[in-house]
Amino acid sequence: MNYLPGMLVVTCAVIYNSRNEVLAVQRSETMRMPLKWEFPGGKVELGETEKEALIREIREELRMTIFPEKRMQPVNHRYETGTICLVPYLARIGDVSPQLTEHLALRWLPPGRLQELDWAEADLPVVQQIQQGGAGFFDGNTVPF
To answer: In sequence order, what are the residues at sequence separation of 6 or more whose Cβ sits closer than 8 angstroms to the Cβ of residue 91?
Structure first.
């Protein structure tokens, strides 16, 4: 995929568990956008694919394995520090529970309750994509986006 010059490409994982809950993590007080909630992930490094970056970032941030299943609609967002292209992936959790290494907190929520959190701005369109899928968001066979 081609990106605009100077745009930071960031992947994030919409990780779901066996109860069809979605994982959200809260940024620490020392991170940019302190205490905002986000989908975990990070920057795509030179030479990495989006999926490789996502798997690496989740392993580093949460000490867990995920299985990216479907690329969702990317989000371009301009922050004061620059523009990012946030590339979300629907991902199945591996067999290990997440362990926080950088973030302050985590929550597993059903898709219909995601709006209860104070999200980072770039993540809000991803929340909307999930919620537009309705109650059958994760049915094990198809994903509505």
So the answer is: 13, 14, 15, 16, 54, 58, 66, 67, 68, 69
Mean pLDDT of the chain: 87
pTM: 0.88
- Three-class SS state of 125: helix
**Helix/strand/coil for 112:** helix
As a whole number of Å, the CA-based R_g of the chain is 14
| Alpha helix ranges (H) inside the chain | 50-62, 124-132
pLDDT at residue 141 in the model: 46
Residue 133 to residue 56: CA distance in whole angstroms? 28
112: left (phi over 0), alpha (psi -120 to 50) or beta: alpha
Name, in order, each residue with C-beta under 8 angstroms of 138's C-beta and a sequence gap of 6 or more. 16, 20, 111
Residue in the block written with tokens 């094990």: 140
Q: At residue 26, what is the residue type? A: Q
Q: Is-contact 9 43, C-beta < 8 A?
A: yes
102 neighbors 46 (Cβ within 8 angstroms):
no
Instruction: Tell me the torsion sign for CA atoms 135, 138, 143, 145.
Output: positive
